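Q: Could you write out the predicted structure for this multi-component system? I'm mainly interested in how the pieces pack against one another.
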Amino acid sequence: MFVRVAWLVLRKDFAIEAKTREILYTTLIFAVACVLVFSFAFVREGQPIEGAGGGILWIALLFSGNLALGRTFERERYGETIRALLLAPAPRAAIYVGKLLGIVALMSLAELILTPLVALLFHAPLFARPLHMIALLVLGTVGFSSVGTLFAAMLMRARTRDVLLPILLYPVTVPVIIAGVMGTSALMQTPADEPMAMLWISLMAFFDVVFVTLALWMFEPLMTE
Amino acid sequence: MRKLFTPLAILTAAMLGYAPIAIANAPYESTMLLVQKIFYFHLATWMALATAVTVCAAGSVIYLFKGNEKADRIAFAAAELSVVYCTFGLISGSLWGRKAWGVWWQWDAKLTMAFMLEMIFLGYLIVRKYAGPGAEKLAAAMGIFGAATAPFIYKSADWWRTVHPQTSVMKTLGEKAPPMWNVVWFCGVAFVLLFVVLLTLRVGLEDRRAELDRLYLEAEA
Amino acid sequence: MNMLRCAVMALFCVLLAAPAILAQTPQPPPATEGFVPANDLPAVEQLPAAPLVIGAYACFLVIMVGYAWSISRRLNTVEAEMRALEQRQARGSGQR
């Protein structure tokens, strides 16, 4: 029942997105625009600063993820579909998981384009250890999205929701971002520092477990009014 | 409980008044000499902050799951005090670091996480003020997440080699320098008592506000 | 209300004594263990620690007293609103 509901919510979001691809394209373009803006700060005499690529990747993901979250739930709010979802005799946590998986899928698609682009533009050896990099990205996306989905959902009915989402989300996801940037920097060293990267990956996994557990626990009381 | 307040306030004031004397008489630390004296208040403020964050989280959980409005008011007061204590902690640490490390700020794990905690509870206050109806629940969620990330500030100095002394320094201080250890705990207790006093005052304010809201609703009925 | 004011004033008065007491710190004894880099540095490179220490404690005083004062101020506003509301109600029910 739980898995079925989550899968149905995911399929619904996917079906809507597949038709217009609106959020996907706008998120991607925004992320690329971010990368362009960063180039003004992190390039000296035409050459990118050493090691800047990791930080730029994660910050671009953070900003574009924030937008994607806002837009996804704005769609729900506009169509008033969230009320229908909450009225349905389905476990609330399953709805949360369905929405979470949708956001993770969206951000993963963005990362698929963004990571090679950053590696290219900033001469960053992000693919020196591809498996570690993928692990970092997946875990980081899950961590960020878990808190983001919860906050975006709970802010749907609040005033000033657009500006409140980043204000609330960024401080809470700082541990995930730090782990991501540090792990990426470790992988970008000339002999890639694998033990260090593994430390950050395991720390990130730990944060993910904590955040997802908290979010699942809090989704029900937060969405009841 | 109300009768306890005045003696508690006087005790707190007395302890805080005596604290500078105790600190001045504490032995000097060999490498940092005078500037290390900031440490007593700096550490005490983080002890009080840990208390404040725990109280906020507990209040938030009770409010979120049981709907108890008194718990929500306590959580709000504790969050405001968390911001106050965190601000002082960051300022005192910065002043100490200027002499001890040579810089006003460093982006090591502990400072970054402490700054992050301040932002989380500032976010709590912002949500309370600007999110409109239902803001209490949103703020409660922020309080719980803030408390979840707080232990990492404490432990981060152990996990990452930073300029901060590791937490093991504190544990061995008791054996190596008992007079210092006593002053540390004295200041810590004084700060936590101050937190209790200020919390009581602040919750009293919130209670009066709730009473006023109730009166307004009655007047319109 | 009296209780609140008493508590705040007691706190304020005792804390006010703190900088005066602190300023009478005795001279530090010569450091014995470990390396003593600070003393070996030429005087121009050393930072005076006393202003930083006093600044930290003064900051504490300002922040805590300021916060207590802000609570007191907000409480006065709420009390004034309550009194205004009660007066309006008394006038309203008196006219009826």
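A: Regarding packing and overall arrangement: Chain B has one domain: 2-220.
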